[in-house]
Design goal:
One of its GO terms (cellular component) is plasma membrane. Keywords: Cell inner membrane, Cell membrane, Membrane, Transmembrane, Transmembrane helix. This protein is mainly alpha-helical and about 100 residues long. It has three helices and no strands. It has helices at about 10-25, 35-80, 80-100. α2 packs across α3 (about 80-100).
Length: about 100
């Protein structure tokens, strides 16, 4: 799965959606109606599936970020002067951008 265009507000939107769905499921429909019971079960299963997928995606992003940090740390330990040069160049670029 590709998550290149991941919206940082996606988690907030999903939380709002799941909270709203849970509230609707808890408060609407006739509990004796068989169609309502089936619909509620399908909605609860869909909500659980979405939560599981989002959790896996979140874990995947955390793992990737952690690996990138470890690679950067290893690189700086192997080539400290190049690391200092890259840090200084990045600081200069960020400083110039912030000055504007």
């Amino acid at each position: 799965m590709a998550y290149r265009n991941f919206d940082p507000h996606f988690d907030d939107d999903l939380t709002l959606l799941s909270d709203t769905l849970e509230e609707i499921l808890a408060s609407s429909g006739d509990p004796a109606d068989q169609k309502y019971i089936e619909l509620k079960m399908r909605a609860e299963q869909a909500l659980d599936d979405v939560r599981a997928r989002v959790s896996r995606a979140s874990d995947n992003y955390y793992y990737r970020a952690k690996q990138a940090v470890y690679r950067a740390d290893d690189y700086v330990h192997e080539k400290p002067w190049q690391g200092i040069g890259i840090g200084a160049a990045a600081g200069l670029v960020i400083g110039l951008l912030l000055r504007r």
